[in-house]
Predict the structure.
Amino acid sequence: MRRAGLWAVTMAMWLGEMARGYERGASTMGRRQAVRASAAGRGGLMRLRGGDTALEDLPLVIDTFDDKQLQDMHMAGLMDNVWEKSVQETMSRGGGHTQYETLVDAEGLFDGFPSDWRRWRLKETHIGFLVPRDLQYSRSLHNDFKNNEMAVVSRNDGSKRFCMVVACDDDGALRNGEEVGKSYVLKLENDDKTRMGITRVERAENIGKIDAKTQEEEHVLDDMCRTEASIALKNMGNDALNMTQLAIAKYSKALLYIEDLVDEPTGANRSTAQIEFVKININLAFAYLKGQKFELCVGACERALKVDPNNTKALYRAGVAYRSLQKLDEAKHFFLVMFGLERIRSELRWCS
């Protein structure tokens, strides 16, 4: 009788745990379905940005991950520390600077952007990139282009950007007594989803031809190109966040392109370079926190706060870094400033 009573109590506890687990699973599933329904309402895409996300200005994410892909992503995150440890061990053995130099990519061999923006050189990775003002090219209906040749084309917004000639679409001819040049298929943007990318057909007279010597020369990027390059490097850092060292290298290089374009703000209006400077420093601070480099995190936050003194993410991450350094008075200061902002107070009212 006593055993039967014990068995009944055990079964009741087990069934209760199952019920609570089912409720938790149903709640999680409901949230996931709500997120996917919201994403579907935006054409299957959702932008991760704003106060609830770790990084500023993350790229679009397609919400079609199955359980296996999610598991692989988590495993990649767990392997992050193992990968960094192997890099550090290689560097400590003596011939190890090559791996870290590969991460920094000072010459721009992989990402197309050298650390010194005065030594920029055209590469295939620059499809869709803004054309520097000093780069020379010519337009003529008599120009011939080879496959995979880099060229210049005007975009719908009026900007001049690099493209790649994919194939000849039409050999041209005399039409109604007028000579018509060849037409070519141009790749305007690289696209990971399709092999061709984003393409358009243009006549030869509308395509800028860059001679071979100009392609081999180094160019000094103008301010607009430098800002666009910093955005490209920032996005590379966002994509590489599972490898903290690589993300830090990309964010740090992005700052080199615009740090001298950023002045103290003179009002609410900020230039594009200032906005990107703040975003890059905030993302860099997050990477430093992830890598437990707390003093460097504070430095990145302070740079962002000089341009945007009320930036909540910079204030919060500086507070977290100071708390991790056991500097509690400094941490308290940043947290109090953050919670003193009207926007944060209004959000907290909804939580009460």
Observations:
- The chain has a mean pLDDT of 76.
- Residues 2-41 form the longest helix (40 residues).
- Residues 131 and 288 are 33 Å apart (CA to CA).
